[in-house]
Each structure stands twice: as structure tokens, then as C-alpha cells.
Design a protein that fits this description.
Keywords: Membrane, Transmembrane, Transmembrane helix. InterPro entries: ICMT_MeTrfase (IPR007269), Metal_cation-efflux_comp (IPR052527). It is a multi-pass membrane protein. This is Isoprenylcysteine carboxylmethyltransferase family protein. This protein is mostly helical and 193 residues long. The protein has one domain: Four Helix Bundle (Hemerythrin (Met), subunit A). Helices cover 65% and strands 3% of the residues. The chain contains six helices and two strands; from the N terminus they run αβααβααα. Strands 1-2 form a two-stranded antiparallel sheet. Helix 3 runs antiparallel to helix 4 and helix 4 packs antiparallel against helix 5. The longest helix is centred in the N-terminal third of the chain and has 31 residues. The radius of gyration is 18 Å and the shape is elongated.
């Protein structure tokens, strides 16, 4: 098990990243709720947290117990992972104090139409979907990649409609992107205005 220490360092960095994200989310949640925001999706949020905790435990277990070695394509998979992290940071900074792991909507807030939100509706969900597939594949943890990709599809099929309905109910979300060129951005996209 030559790659145990690189794996352990990578795994610990992932855990640390998640802890930092939760701290940012908690700070933003406090600010938003203090300004009259409304939370949605509490029922599925606990399941989502458990899903992510189990991801890290099963990923670790599969790697160690089944003695999974690094993939021959680990360089490319790591490159995709790093690109996903750049999109995550871009999304986080674009949303600023509105970014959260929960569905929290501030009534009548302006809809964010900058950063990756100019291009796609839910960039952070794209990042998470890529991670749940690519992270285990770096270490040939096929079972983890398959199971959590499927679980994530199920979770997002519940979460995204709730989030979009909450945004429609409390913000000008419906018409916010009418003038945008999502998926075909121009240099001077009207979304930036």
C-alpha cells in the first residue's frame, strides 16, 4: 500500500475543506436568518449530511479494506477535481453571504447573476456531483463512486425543485435570467448587469 500516506493526506484535506465550508455556511446562515431569511428543505438536509458523512467513511473503508491502488489516470482525475474546486470557490465568492449548504432564501433579495451563475443554474451541485464521482475514482474506489453518484442523483432530484420553488416564491428568480445567454456566454453578458 505505497500510496497510503498520499491518500490519507488527501482524505484529511477533503475533511478540512468540508469543515471550513460548514463554518462559512453557519456564519452566512446566521446573517441571513437575522435579516428575515426563510429556510426550506429541513427534512432532506439531514439525509444529505448523512450521505456526505457516509461517503467519506465508505470511501476510506473501500480504499483501505480492499487495498485500492491509485488509478492509472489519477493525473487527469485530479485535474478534474482541481477544476471543480476552482468552480466551487468561484460560486462561493459569487454568492457571498448568500452561499450556504442549506436552502435559505432572503425574501426580495436580488438574484445573483454573476460568476458561474451566468452559465449554469446550480454550479455548486455540479461540483459536488463531479467530486462524488472523481474523488473515489482517483483511488479506484468504484463501489463508492457508483453508490454515491446514484444517491446524489436522488438527493438532487429532491433538493433542486425545493430550492427553485423557494427562489420563485421569494425572489424575482423566474425572470432574472431572461436576458442572459446561459451556456452560450458573450463577452459582455447582460447577466453581469
Amino acid at each position: 500500500m505505497v500510496d497510503f500516506y498520499p491518500f490519507l493526506i488527501f482524505w484529511c484535506l477533503l475533511i478540512a475543506q468540508r469543515v471550513v465550508e460548514l463554518l462559512i455556511a453557519k456564519k452566512n446562515e446566521k446573517w441571513m436568518l437575522g435579516h428575515g431569511a426563510i429556510e426550506y428543505g429541513q427534512e432532506h438536509y439531514r439525509l444529505m449530511v448523512w450521505m456526505h458523512l457516509l461517503f467519506f467513511l465508505i470511501f476510506f473503508s473501500e480504499k483501505i479494506l480492499l487495498n485500492r491502488e491509485m488509478s492509472f489516470a489519477w493525473h487527469w482525475l485530479l485535474f478534474v477535481f482541481i477544476l471543480a474546486q476552482l468552480v466551487r470557490v468561484w460560486a462561493l465568492f459569487s454568492l457571498g453571504k448568500y452561499w450556504n449548504t442549506k436552502i435559505i432564501v432572503l425574501p426580495n433579495a436580488n438574484v445573483i447573476r454573476k460568476g458561474p451563475y451566468r452559465l449554469i443554474k446550480h454550479p455548486n451541485y455540479l461540483v459536488v456531483s463531479l467530486e462524488l464521482l472523481v474523488i473515489p475514482l482517483i483511488f479506484n474506489a468504484y463501489f463508492t463512486a457508483a453508490i454515491f453518484t446514484i444517491l446524489n442523483i436522488g438527493m438532487l432530484s429532491i433538493r433542486i425543485p425545493i430550492e427553485e420553488q423557494a427562489l420563485r416564491n421569494h425572489t424575482p428568480y423566474e425572470g432574472a435570467f431572461e436576458s442572459c445567454n446561459r451556456f452560450l456566454p458573450k463577452l459582455l453578458n447582460k447577466c453581469d448587469k
